[in-house]
Amino acid sequence: MEKYTPGYSANATTFMAQRTVDSHAAFFRAYLRPGFHLLDCGCGPGTITLGFAPLISPGLVTGVDLEASQIQVARERSVASGLSNLRFQVSSIYELPFANHCFDAAFSHAVMEHLQQPVKALQELHRVLKPGGVVGLRSPDWGGFLLAPASAELEEALAYYKQIQQRNGGDPYIGRQLGALLRQAGFTNIKVSASYQCYENLSLIAEYLALQIEASDSNEQSNRSKENAGSSRHQSCAEMGNTLRAWSQHRDSWFAQAWCEAVAYKA
Fold it and tell me: Is the pTM of this model over 0.85?
């Protein structure tokens, strides 16, 4: 079963709304041109989408997301911004409600890691792009985290979050696979890169992770108990949440997240 792990709690949506073109889509700016018709898949609250609008004006930016509440937030932000070249609608990345060959560019941020069928999603992006159109993807890779101060308890909490995402049908290590997935979907001229995001507000991400762990259902906790049978005692979900919160308040705490980017073209 595929499930969007972050969910739409106030904490999660606040966390996602911190993202902008400058902070999370700078790698794609050089590929955009005025007059482009740009699709932002999985736009969430629209903070990145709004940043694209001035870059491609008088072209149109279309943001789509599966969650209706996020599309409503994005529309409200669009109205408040005064920008006129934006539109938002509810849509699945697997079934985009657009004709073939109608976009000059497509973008998707922090989406692929939550999909059971990422190639199918990328084939749909390929379909709606014009020949010569460009796609930009960005996803984290949980194999590249840097954090301090490290502890066995903190590592256990992060490992448990990864298990939740995997059980929800996602892949926390998909970042390193973006190039291969694009190739499988029919894209060419693929360029991959990577960068780190250093979190200044550790409380926000620690609370985000803690809430996801604490909300994990009893089946996940039961599976974890079976996996750890015969081993030394492990933290409960509540204890892992407290571990994350305490870590975020440590005077030497630091966290850098690895992000992988990929740009490719439709022949």
Answer: yes
Rounded to whole angstroms, how far apart are CA atoms 243 and 249? 10
User: For residue 250, what pLDDT is reported?
Assistant: 96
Please give the structure tokens belonging to residue 221.
Answer: 């906790």
Kind of pairing between the strands at 129-140 and 103-109: parallel
Question: Does residue 58 have a cis peptide bond before it, meaning omega lies within 30 degrees of 0?
Answer: yes
Which pair of structure tokens corresponds to residue 171?
A: 């892949």
Backbone φ and ψ for 126, nearest 5 degrees, come out as: -60, -40
Report the alpha-carbon distance of residue 184 to residue 117 in Å, rounded: 12
pLDDT in tens, 69-91: 999 999 999 999 999 999 999 99
Phi/psi of residue 195, nearest 5 degrees: -150, 170
Q: Which amino acid is at 148?
A: A
Do 96 and 69 meet the contact criterion of CB atoms below 8 Å apart?
no
For the stretch 5-24, pLDDT in tens is 999 988 889 989 999 999 99
Structure tokens at 177: 């696979």
Q: If pLDDT is split at 50, 70 and 90, which confidence band does 231 have?
A: very low
